[in-house]
Structure formats: structure tokens, C-alpha cells
Amino acid sequence: MPILGGVASRRTLVAITSRQALDQALRSGELVRVNRGRYAVPTVHASTELALKVSGYVCLVSAALAHGWKVKVVPERPQIAVPKDRRLDAARRAEMHLSWIDLQDEHVEGVCTTAAKTLEMCGRRLPFDEALTIADSALRDGFPRQELDALAREARGPGAARLRRVAAHADGRADNPFESVLRATALDVPGLDVEPQVRIRGDLGLVVRSDLVDRRLRIVLEADSFEWHGDRAALRRDARRYDLLVANGWVVLRFAWEDVMHDREWVRSVLVATVMRTERTAKLLAQP
Domain DUF559 spans what residues (predicted)? Predict the structure, then answer.
């Protein structure tokens, strides 16, 4: 479930496991149903229960999960917002990650921060890759682009610049958290300008949709997940896809989930080296 961002549809879960495995996960409590056809990690319900116990509100990543959005990292403890003057004993505080904040009525819905307030808090407080993952998922799920832009434009105070950066780069075309985190790393590489889910056509029958593409440098970044490429037919299909891209002059880099999520500096170093080599080669070819 972590590779799926903590939330997934029934169709996705059945495709990568089985109906029997999904039913067993629901019976055992490994997954919970959050709405029709959508399932999540059990901390979604735990967050709601804790928020009710302390008269607080589910916030940040826990709220993103409650809204059905995918995340980079599922929090170990529910994230709860309580008023600044609220007093809780040590045992209760140990059950959750607290944010001391006075929320207005328009910032909450039920026991959770609203979609807009959740995006604002995540953009201000979370690391860029985590916030971008949530913003991408929110846009993909139908949150209005203009509303996210307005949140960023009107932001003032601590974290406002971070929120504006997230909003500027959020893209609903991103397919999943894996791809969003890879794009967040790519955005820190000088000279690299990637966009998600680009259709590429070329010679030898090349027609593919690639995860991340820099059109100028002709670099393709692929977020390779074993869950989606676990049989011989998929292996052959992907081998042909990458061979055709290379034959058409594209540089193809394939990254594993573990490296993208847990070794960002290594991924960045590979991207930096590739951009430098590609630009150097282009300059040599341009010489008379």
C-alpha cells in the first residue's frame, strides 16, 4: 500500500493482488473502505476517532488521506489540529502528532480540515516532495486549479513561499506519488524541465506515453514499479518501448521506487550528470 500512496481504488488493488486478497485485507483491518470503490490504510479511521476524543480536527497528511488523496509517506501517528489553548496529558499526546492552531469554522468540515485548508497547511509545512505529491493528487481528483492558485496568491506569513512553489508546479497529469516525488527531485536540477505523461511519436512505430519528459534535451524519466511489470509480456512490452525511444534519439533513465523515495541525492546526481553530458554533446554537435 505505501507504493500506492495510502489510497487506492478497488480496480487497482484487485489488479495487483486479487479479490480474495482484498477481502482478506478488509476483514483483518489492513485496509478500510473510505468511500465507494476506494480503500485506504486504517490510520484514516484512527485519525477520525482520535480527533473526536480531543475535540480536534484531522489535518495535514492524515487529512489528505481522509480526502482520498495519495501521499508520499503515510504518517505513523494520526495528525491532529487542536486549539492553541488546549491541554492534553502526555499519554494522549503520545497517540498523535499535534498541530497547535486555531482553525476558523470555514477551515473545517466534519472532523477534518477542508480540502483547501488541507492543501494550504501541507504546502506551508511539509517538505516540497511530500506537498507536491498531495497537490498533484488533489488536482487529479478534481480540486480546482484556480482555487489552488488563489490559495498561493493570497498566502502570507510563514511557509507562504513554500506554498507558492508547490502550487506553481502542481500538475494533475502526474500519475502517482512515485512519479510526483521523482518530478520534485528533477525540479531541483538546473537545466532540466520535465512535464508528466507526455505522448511521444517517432520512427519504427514509436507511440508511447512517458512518465516525465524534457522535450528540449530529449530526456525521458521512467518511474519503474515492479507491481506493474511483473510478467514476461509486460517485460517484453517495456523493453520494446525503451528500445524504440533510444532508437529515436531519446535518453531514457529508469528509476526504482526505493531510490526515488529513499535516496534522493543519488537520483539527483544521476540527473545532473545526464543533463551535463547531454548539453555538452549538443554543443559539440553544433560546432562547425
Answer: 211-269
Q: In the β-sheet with 32-35, what is the strand arrangement from edge to edge?
A: 7-9, 38-40, 32-35
| Cell triple for 257 | 521506487
Name the residue ranges covered by the structural domains of the chain: 1-41, 42-172, 179-286
pTM above 0.90, yes or no: no
| Of 88, 115, 87, 117, residue with least CA distance to 104 | 117
pLDDT for residue 62: 94
Contact between residue 198 and residue 210 where contact means Cβ atoms under 8 Å apart: yes
Element (H, E) at 197: strand 195-201
What would the grid cell of residue 209 be?
506515453
Regarding the domain delimited by 179-286, which CATH topology (the fold level of the hierarchy) does it fall under?
Endonuclease; Chain A (3.40.960)
Element housing 33 (H / E): strand 32-35
pLDDT digits (tens, 9 = 90+) for 178-205: 999 999 999 999 999 999 999 999 999 9
Length of the chain: 288
CA distances (Å), 17 to each of 2, 32, 86, 138, 221, in order? 14, 16, 44, 26, 27
